[in-house]
Design brief:
Blueprint (H helix, E strand, L loop, with lengths): L8 H10 L3 E6 L2 E8 L2 E8 L6 H11 L3 H7 L1
Antiparallel strand pairs: 1-2, 2-3
């Protein structure tokens, strides 16, 4: 497993959009995304900060059902 990269919120959103997520709205510095799957919808919030803390990134990737390696390919 690869270490968590230091990325900005905007880079995370860009990578998640490549995976099929859609930006639903933004309120302040938080961006809400959704991905529609058969029978369910994945919803997550990404802070639009300069650097995402590794623990926060881990939580976002778990909610998005992505591994670190899959995420790295999307960057």
């Amino acid at each position: 497993m690869t270490r968590f990269p230091l990325v900005s919120g905007r880079e995370v959103v860009r990578a998640l959009r490549r995976d099929g997520f859609v930006v639903v709205r933004q309120k302040g510095s938080h961006i809400r995304l959704e991905k529609y799957l058969p029978g369910e919808t994945l919803r997550l919030t990404v802070p639009a900060h300069r650097e995402i803390v590794p623990g926060t990134l881990k939580s976002i990737l778990n909610a998005a059902r992505l591994s670190v390696d899959e995420f790295m390919e999307l960057l």
